[in-house]
Specification:
With 456 residues, the protein is mainly α. Helices cover 77% and strands 2% of the residues.
Length: 456
């Protein structure tokens, strides 16, 4: 039999490569979400609309990018299992960054009328398709390069990009948000979108030298007469559904980063820069808490930590939204930090390994991409839009959005309870544990297996 040398694991490189891509993704989300709450509703829609309606329409353009994600997952997920995690990571890098840059180049409603929001939606659709394969490939890459007992810690760096991307966007956006409104609406709002080009170049330089992980190379040596997506949907549909339901907790993050800004500045006329500072400070603190939580994921378990974070982030969203109605900045900052920096950091640190380990190596990107993108599409579309609608045309209602956050928490928490705890298994053992006897029979109905060995 032919002997195939497997590449060495490089956990540090994989963690950094995954982190920089997620930073770009969340930079895009945070910049677009912040702009949706502050300027896009003014620039891309008719000035005759009530403020609550224009903000709602702006949030709907944010939601469009999430609605199309499951479609992109059906395309990019299988590509990650067929052609490599790195292949998809490079493809999505330029797709996400390019679209963000183009948004900064768009003409406004005052310049081209109704064509402005149409162009905005088209770019958001393309971007949503690209984003759908980024995290699943990056998480699989970092998971499969990780030492067996540090998989939770290493994969937590992927979602550390949620905090660093949010922080980067706030650092870039804050100075422009503080400018006179004429300058902000005239030219300054475009700069944060153009800044994405720098992140793309940095990510490319880091990712271009990455090797595919050993687990992927080993699966490529086995010719199986069943496509990865077909195998994932046919044999792992329960895991896909479970991941989709668990991923709904992301809706609370979208509410924190986008809806709460519009809620505070639009409904209660709070200072824009200070509201953005809440998110900025929370992201700074999360940079330290996320990897610490990742360390605990390997000690206490993926499911345990995910449940702690999910319950915490859902229940603290209620007093956080209420605090905005009081105008008490000390309370707003305190509850915002507890909600996002503490509890959502725990969610972010635990879900990459928790979700990815529900699938065997050969279908990991496909299953993870489809499951997460269904959940993120639902929560990303429903979260800010429904929360805005529930707040009313005056953007002053906080009870409805609070109930929505609790709903996300309930569905995600109950779904997590149905999952196995996987921290004690090796990746090879997981490939066996997560496959039914029927699936094993289908997979082994293939060509002879070549011998694989580690590189010398």
């Amino acid at each position: 039999m032919t002997e195939i040398a497997l590449p060495k694991k490089t956990p540090a490189k994989a963690a950094v490569a995954a982190w920089i891509g997620t930073t770009l993704e969340y930079y895009d989300f945070a910049v677009y979400g912040t702009a949706s709450a502050l300027v896009l509703n003014v620039l891309f829609f008719s000035p005759k609309l009530p403020e609550g309606i224009s903000v709602l329409l702006s949030m709907m353009t944010l939601a469009v990018g999430y609605v199309v994600r499951p479609i992109g997952a059906l395309i990019l997920g299988p590509l990650g299992d067929r052609f490599g995690r790195k292949f998809v990571m490079m493809l999505t890098l330029f797709g996400i960054g390019g679209c963000t840059f183009l948004i900064g180049c768009l003409p406004t409603y005052a310049q081209v009328g109704a064509l402005a929001p149409i162009l905005l939606v088209v770019i958001r659709v393309i971007q949503g398709l690209c984003v759908s394969g980024e995290q699943a490939s990056a998480i699989s890459m970092s998971l499969e390069h990780s030492p067996e007992r540090r998989r939770g810690f290493i994969t937590s760096f992927t979602t550390l990009g949620a905090s660093s991307g949010t922080l980067l966007s706030m650092v870039v956006f804050l100075p422009f948000a503080a400018l006179p409104e004429a300058d902000l609406l005239g030219w300054a709002w475009r700069i944060p979108f153009w800044f994405s080009a720098i992140v793309v170049v940095a990510a490319y330089l880091i990712r271009r030298h990455m090797q595919e992980p050993p687990a992927f190379v080993a699966t490529q040596a086995i010719k199986v007469n069943i496509a990865p997506l077909n195998q994932a949907v046919r044999f792992h549909w329960r895991a896909i559904l479970r991941v989709a339901c668990c991923a709904l907790i992301a809706g609370t993050s979208y509410m924190m980063q986008t809806f709460s800004v519009a809620f505070g500045t639009g409904g209660y006329k709070l200072d824009k820069s200070t509201m953005l500072l809440v998110t900025t400070l929370s992201a700074v603190i999360a940079l330290g808490i996320t990897p610490l939580s990742g360390f605990l994921v390997d000690k206490l378990g993926r499911r345990t930590m995910f449940l702690i974070g999910t319950i915490g982030v859902g229940t603290t969203m209620v007093p956080y939204l209420w605090s905005i109605t009081t105008g008490n900045w000390a309370l707003i900052f305190l509850l915002g930090i507890v909600n996002y920096s503490l509890f959502y950091s725990i969610v972010n640190a635990s879900w990459p390994s928790f979700f990815a380990e529900m699938f065997p190596s050969r279908v990991r990107v496909s299953g993870l991409a489809v499951g997460t993108q269904i959940g993120f599409a639902a929560s990303g579309a429903i979260g800010p839009v429904l929360a805005t609608a529930l707040a009313g045309t005056t953007l002053t209602g906080w009870v409805g959005p609070s109930v929505l956050a609790l709903g996300f928490m309930l569905v995600a928490g109950v779904s997590a309870l149905t999952a196995k705890e996987t921290r004690r298994y090796t990746l090879d053992e997981l490939d066996d544990v997560q496959q039914s006897e029927h699936e094993k029979a289908a997979v082994t109905a293939a060509t002879a297996l070549p011998t694989v060995a580690p590189a010398s």
